[in-house]
Structure formats: C-alpha cells, structure tokens
Write a structure and sequence with these properties.
Layout lengths: L4 E7 L5 E5 L2 E6 L2 E6 L6 E5 L2 E7 L3 H22 L2 E8 L6 E5 L2 E5 L8 E4 L5 E5 L2 E6 L2 H14 L13 E9 L2
Antiparallel strand pairs: 1-6, 2-3, 3-4, 5-6, 7-12, 7-13, 8-9, 9-10, 11-12
Length: about 180
C-alpha cells in the first residue's frame, strides 16, 4: 500500500521562538507573543530544527488544502512578532465632515452623513488604532486582528438605502504593509 504525504515547511528566523503544545502553536519574538489553536485541523505540526513542518498522511482534498493554509498562518505569526502589520484607511467625505475618535476598544465615527448618533467599530485584540489627519492607521502583530479591525471600521461606514454612485462617503482601506 502506497502512502502519500503532503507537507509544507516554515523557516524560523533568528530571534523567534516557536513552541508546540499538541496543535497549539506559540510564537514569540521581539514584538510580542502570538498563540493560535489548530486542533480543528486534521494535519500534523512538528518542529524539525529551525523549521516548522506541517504535514498530512493520505490527505483528502480539504486536509491537503489545510496544510498550506496552516503553514501560511504560522508564517504570518512569525512575520507579526518580527515586523508587525499596518493597515491604512482613508477618511472620504463630500457631504458632511466626518470626525473619527478612538475611545477605549471602540472607534467612534461622528457626523457620518450628518447622523446625530455616532457609529461604532470594535477594535479586536491588542491592536493600536490612531487617527492622523485624513488617515486612520491600524497596527498590530496579529494580521487577523489587524485585518478584522480595519474591516469593522470600513463596515461601520457602509451606506444603505442611498445611491452608491453619489454617496461615496466612508472610510476605506488603501494600504496594507509590514512595519518592518
């Protein structure tokens, strides 16, 4: 009987420590610590010296796809603890000037289309959000938390029941970068 093995390797750079507890991966580096749980996946994760090996034995189609997906997640965790991620959003308005403030774990968007009640967007995890003029900058070490926070801000200014060709007001992502 022939066995097929699908595997993917992730290099661990100097200054980064990766530890495994079953399928729970913990990556620590100069910018912080990220932990993720991959117990739902039917793949194996092992440490081979200075590499992380993600593999599956006789995989079906979904397990085969999960190998590379989980390897990419671990690679993003390593990039996060060494460099970090930054998303830039642009505040765009034609009708009413939008005022954006950060209050605790929320982003308050005031005077959007002249509304009296401020719209709110939730900040996920240990993400830092600040406003510089017409830009909203979202930074953090976990790419999923940074991306979800940027998406929450974008979705908070989604326009309903108006002609989208005319009402282009909102807050939109225009740049995704590694802080490096």
């Amino acid at each position: 009987m022939a066995f097929t093995v699908v595997e993917s390797f992730v290099d661990i750079p100097d200054g980064v420590e990766v530890s495994l507890d079953g399928k729970r991966v913990r990556v620590s580096g100069p910018r912080g610590i990220i932990e993720k749980d991959f117990t739902h996946a039917k793949v194996e994760i092992t440490l081979d010296g200075d590499k992380v090996r993600v593999w599956a034995l006789n995989p079906r189609k979904k397990e085969k796809a999960l190998v590379k997906t989980i390897a990419s997640h671990i690679n993003n965790m390593i990039k996060g603890v060494t460099k970090g991620f930054r998303y830039k959003l642009k505040i765009v308005y034609v009708h009413f000037p939008i005022n954006v403030q950060v209050a605790g774990d929320r982003v308050l968007i005031q005077n959007f289309l002249g509304e009296r009640k401020p719209r709110e967007a939730r900040i996920i995890g240990d993400v830092k959000v600040y406003v510089q003029g017409e830009d909203v900058i979202v930074e953090g070490i976990d790419i999923e938390a940074v991306g979800q926070t940027a998406a929450n801000i974008e979705q908070a200014t989604r326009i309903r029941r108006k002609d989208l060709r005319k009402f282009l007001d909102g807050i939109y992502v225009y740049a995704k970068e590694e802080i490096g």
